[in-house]
Amino acid sequence: MEKIKTFIETHFLNPKDDDISDIISLIQDVHTENLGITDFNKGTLAISDDENENSVYSFSIPNEGVSKQKIKSFISKLFQGTPRWNSPRTIYNAAPPPLQTTIAVKLLTALYNPNLALHTASGKSLNTEQKVIKAISKYAGWDETIAGGIFTWGGKATTMYAIKLGLSRCCQNSSKQGVKEDVVVISTDAGHPSHISDAEWLGIGSSNVIRLGADENTKVDLIQLEKTMRSCIVEGKKIAAIIISGGTTNDMIVDPIDRVIKLRDSLVKEFSMEYTPHVHVDAVVGFPWLFFKDYDFSKNEIGISTPAINRIKKVLDDLKYIDQADSFGIDFHKMGFCPYISSLFMLKDGRTFSEKRKDIFNWPFFYSMESSRPADGPNTAYIALNTLGIEGFQRIIAHLTENAIHLSELLDKNEEFELINTMCQGTASLFLPRVPKGVYFENFDTEIKVRNEYASTFIERLNKLGNPYYIDKIPSNATGSQQVPFTSLKTFTMSPFSTKESNEEFINFLKKLKKEIDADFNFGNKQNNFQEEKHPLK
């Protein structure tokens, strides 16, 4: 029995001294092993040939645990092929290099392992959660003594909370009896596909999600919104939630929050509705732009370039009205520069969560979707806010915007590529590789198939080269505010180490890669059996 006890104890923190030197040493050893095979001129960590689909089926649970020395290799392989988010060569999506302070907090949170189901097992983390919620409420313009919120398992969950609370508002017995009435959710074509899947999970049904089109400014079409709401009200349908954008992923387009609220309120009054449809702003990507709401652009003390100021102002023009919404979502693991997962659902009237105000501080499992809930979200968000402060967020958003504008300009001026999202207000660039001169297609269907395969070839070549640049692709007709029928390539400037020089290096590399692809890509006389992969944004 003593041998068993000794074996077990070697794998856990010794309560006599809580010494973590072995853990630190293990982390350092694994990271050093990864660095040994890392090419710093590439956007992802290296990946060995044996890490493929076959390796999934070759694994079986060992009879005896492996030694401490061998486990390092097991841990190291877990991270092969992952993006190097800090690298300017990683321009993949709205995924950040986490702040070093938030990485440390993430590791320490795992060490101390607080559970936010209730106060007795959470240490100070529940209090930290409320600090973040109240501070953001105050900054957004809400009454922080009434406002509430909760950290949850992702941006999809923030929208689910909004729909669920809206459902409880329009169908008061739904929590006990289920969805018995004809309920709809109103969203937009530019909105995230999670709006649809949330309705599926909540029993409302995907066919009851009405996706509205955009106006000439690529914002929600208010005329169509009014017609849709009127039609639903007259037909006796209940509107659980109206979900609008607080910054789309690809273009950072913000819907006119104040005008949507005004329209909703006028229809509630006109029809003497017994409930008020819940308006949620999906600001998981765009929220940090709100940190410019008190910035004096005329003084411009941090020296932002004029083109970047113009972009930021356009986002802020509508985002500053976020205080009029019933709720909004934030992903700190996106533009908040925290590790996964740190998502926050914010609610203007926290009393909707719980009539007993002490529940918010002591027993959140009464109103949360989760029972067991990690403290990673609030802890890392709190440290990120303290590390950067308002001015720090202003500086990093400005820096990324300036470099994204420069990259877009390089793409726009280059004859080898065509910039798509010319109305972008954020840090993404969507572009098409131009088909060489002299190439003609029999018909439009053929052109679509060939050009989709053409764009996908760029991603495939980059992958085979070990991702010297890690970029994304967007399926046809899924590019956000400006739809195109072809698969496009996408960059998303997120690294604080991005520069004009790194942009120019990328364009030069891309031109060289295109020349190589054009030399052996068959644009004509193809079988055209290429089938574009399905994508949730489509």
Automatic annotation (TrEMBL):
GO molecular function: carboxy-lyase activity
GO cellular component: cytoplasm
Matches recorded under InterPro entries: PyrdxlP-dep_Trfase, PyrdxlP-dep_Trfase_major, PyrdxlP-dep_Trfase_small
Keyword annotations of the record: Decarboxylase, Lyase
Signal peptide residue numbers: none
Family: Belongs to the group II decarboxylase family.
Protein name in UniProt: Pyridoxal-dependent decarboxylase
Highest classification ranks of the organism: Bacteria, Katanobacteria
